[in-house]
Write a structure and sequence with these properties.
Number of helices: 6
Distance between the termini: 16 Å
Strand content: 5-15%
Order of helices and strands: HEEHEHHEEEHH
Radius of gyration: 16 Å
Number of strands: 6
Shape: globular
Length: 131
């Protein structure tokens, strides 16, 4: 949502800077190795969730950074929600019909969520972002 809020502000200010977002899906990294999960029902559930390698998870970021088709307001994510090749799920700030089931892209495009996340980031950092 922050990326889309930034995109809208950049467009409004007629900036040529791009704001492009991405997510890795569920990638196997040490982030999942926490003490509170060890031996818990969460850890057991974790084995049932589809995952992809950390390298595959990084592909959405690579697409956002290097694709010649990437434009401001675009958002890349795994095509199957948690796994799969990266696809553009938001184009120019508008949600695309991709068949994804997790809905992250829906929340990303919600103006209320954008405002909420923008303000929360400003508050957490104690600064007002000037665009």
């Amino acid at each position: 949502a922050f990326t889309m809020a930034l995109h809208r502000k950049l467009v409004a200010s007629e900036s040529n800077i791009k704001s492009v977002g991405c997510e890795p899906g569920y990638s196997v990294t040490p982030l999942q190795n926490t003490k509170h999960m060890t031996g818990s029902w969460l850890m057991k559930l974790d084995f049932m969730i589809p995952k992809q390698s950390a390298a595959d998870g990084s592909l959405s970021a690579a697409m956002a950074c290097f694709s010649p088709d990437a434009q401001s307001g675009d958002f890349y994510a795994p095509e199957k929600g948690m796994t799969g090749k990266p696809v553009k799920v938001v184009a120019g700030g508008v949600r695309r019909k991709t068949g994804r089931i997790d809905g992250t892209d829906k929340a990303t495009c919600d103006p209320d969520q954008q405002k909420l996340v923008w303000e929360a980031c400003e508050k957490a950092l104690g600064i007002e972002f000037a665009v």
